[in-house]
Design brief:
Chain lengths: 295, 252
Amino acid sequence: MDALPLRSRGVSNFVTVRRNLTNHVVTGVAIISTILVLVPLVAIFGYLLYKGASSLNLAFFTHVPVPVGEPGGGMANAIAGSGVILGLASLLGIPVGIGAGVYLAEYARGTWLGAAVRFTADVLNGVPSIVMGLAAYALIVARQQHFSGMAGSVALAIMMIPTVTRTTEEMLATVPKSVREAALGLGIPKWRTVLSVSLRTASPGIITGCMLAFARVAGETAPLLFTAFGNQFWSFDLNQPIAALPLQIYVYALSPYDEWHRLAWAGALVLIVLIMASVTLVRIFANRGVLKGGN
Amino acid sequence: MGVDIRVENLNAWYGPVHTLHDVSLHIPANHATALIGPSGCGKSTFVRCLNRMHETSPGARADGTVLMGDIDIYKDATPVEIRRRVGMVFQRPNPFPTMSIYDNVASGLKLNGFRKKRVLDEVVERSLKQAALWDEVKDDLKKKSGASISGGQQQRLCIARALAVDPEVLLMDEPASALDPVSTAKIEDLIFKLKSQYTIVIVTHNMQQAARVAENTGFFLMGKLVEFAPTTKIFTNPSDKRTEDYITGRFG
């Protein structure tokens, strides 16, 4: 069947031209915005590669820092320390964050307590990271009378909680009511429905939220300044000061020595690559075994 | 095997809105019963009271007696216990999108803690055969997501999922209204086959559908059950003027 010509449907030539033009303009704006978003990211990464790649060698990943003036040395202890601090922070922050998100989405709809928790999470999200460090200092370091990796993990965990909580809540809210009712209709108890159906359906978004929270705190320096404190030697004792990549970069970048500056660049490059790698790994791992819906 | 349902003076509210008024009727076992009426007449609310799903909506409550066999579902049992005996199929197909076809069918058992693989395999095969879906999906049971098959297949998957927990009653809330005519015919065939083993209650907008599948039909209007009678009587010789007006298309 032949389509009616546009004009006989009451659409003038002028209107058609205007609509096409608008379409092109909007598409163009979207493309330019995308480029504007990507440019700083690529530029930063490129500059880090340019400045840092030349200082990277095996020793960087296997040796601890050496005193000024001595050649060589690396950040092995800082890389490992960051791993330990972040691992513990995730272990503390993610379960609490997801739990609070589940409470908000599934049990506290329309209650004053839910509104209070939601408001608190949003405020917490806006608290400057140095204040988190001070809080952990006051709560843990001041009481124990010494710096510790544990205090750093707690500070980072508290920073992760609001992001994880709010994304978990938002993602659970996108799970259709019909899917929940399907589970309840089978005689599956509510707690089981929440765990095995709602959370599972929302899991890709929740994992993204956890990764966002992780990536955000992975580069934080301020909360670690008066908690984990830093360490020039190997240490995995969470009860003692512990080295961390952002701290090491901070110290080296502020130093007056060229050799340390080069190591700081290399450290920044390693930090950004490690964050990207861990986020990518989690994503691949999490996607495995999850069947894709949709037609 | 199906079970008789006796409803006495059932009332339901959404917050302050009184949506069901003193409904009483007897739904016989191992037959299909159709509920018809215009949109908003309370027929969906009524079936949602039969498995206590109504009360899961915020501010909703129900009051009255619903006897399933000799159990008063509002007094003698918890909602979870009732829903294991009363399967439900919804208006829009709602398979679990993150689960395979197999896991969708097995979900009612698995998520209630049942894990014996050999029995699960049998139940999945039997339920999919009952729902006339087995031949179409048997090669993709664990490969495909429940949401990746066609809408008509999804709805039969949902029926299989409901049958897998071996219910006595099957509630169907406009099960074919989102489907094309071919899929609709398959669902109707199914209801016809299944009704010898289950008590089936089907809400429908389609009066031909009611006439085709159900022995008894109830007509709802503005939250009240206007008339309940054998389907042939409802459609050929209704006793209430309002029923006659509705089925002849004078309103609704």
